[in-house]
Amino acid sequence: MHRVARFCLVAMLLPSLAFASRQAAPAPSAGLAEAVSWLHAQQQGDGGFSNGVSEGSDLPTTADAVVAMVSAGEAPSDWTSGGNSPMDYLTQAASQLEPGDAGKMAKLVMAVQAAGGSPNDFAGQDWVQNLEDGWDPESRLYAGDVYGGALSVLALHAAGAEADAQAASGLLSYRLPDGSFSFNGDPTPGSGDSNTTALVVQALVAAGADSLAPSLAYFRAKQNPDGGWTYQKPSPYGEATDANSTALVLQALQAAGETPEDWGDPVRSLLALQTANGGLAFNAETPGDNLLATVQAIPALAGASLAQLPQMAASAGDDGSLAPFPLVAVVLLILVILLVGAALANRKAG
After folding, report:
1. Per-residue pLDDT reduced to its tens digit, 89-100
2. Domain spanning 26-307: which CATH class is it, in words?
3. For residues 98 and 64, what is the distance between their CA atoms, to the nearest angstrom?
4. Residue closest to 109 by CA, chosen among 64, 140, 170, 149
């Protein structure tokens, strides 16, 4: 009977363990719902989102918005304006993409994957193959630049494709002595920035590389007293903590397995930039809701990183949340284990 009891205990624990394994991300931060609500109100009539600078919807911003809403547990298909969803806009905008624009293609791949679609067959093209075709063996980067190369590695990883075996070493060859990376691969000391470095750290994690310590040391050295980050330090353009940089570094820390509390709780410095409307300002020196800042902040507030891209699961409920372990499956599992346990116990008794 002791053996049967043990099997019963295992049967009761298995469903809870299966459910717990789906809850690996940290609990969402305060202010997340307000930021999502503000973002929803900014949706254009074609289903997309403007970059806040030029009129009309913008593909990279809309792709980032899709990742943001999925990070927050929202289904992109539920976000409609003028009868159009973000995916409707991306379907239309994809036809305008230039073949060599790896950064935009990578963001499109991640958005489609996050929304539960297939980037291998979206808007009539295989965008994963298009990204793979951008591999440059001379620079050992996709699209020949660090920023686009890092995004490409992240997108390929999200889509379940293997990046080139030299992709990680290629990115690492552009690391500056202080642990940073520059947008265009400029090797000049001081040219590195927090945004590119944060993307590359996530790409290295996605590629399975473990050489993260120099970049983490760079984040430590450039962190502002309030716990946040700016684009570049020193900089003649100001060094105030901004939402975009802080959010990107938070995502890199999440990917690297770091705990925000061990970094002076930079989430708090990010939330300090949230306005009464729910959106986030770029920085304290430029008050007012900023669309790009808010789009970038939402995944960080949700505890998500691009190295572990949040996705709408096939078993997701109508609200985009993970469905609980099915009750019928639990009952059947318990019955099977009880029968096996009883049979083993009888065999031993006999």
Report:
1. 999 999 989 877
2. mainly alpha
3. 19
4. 64
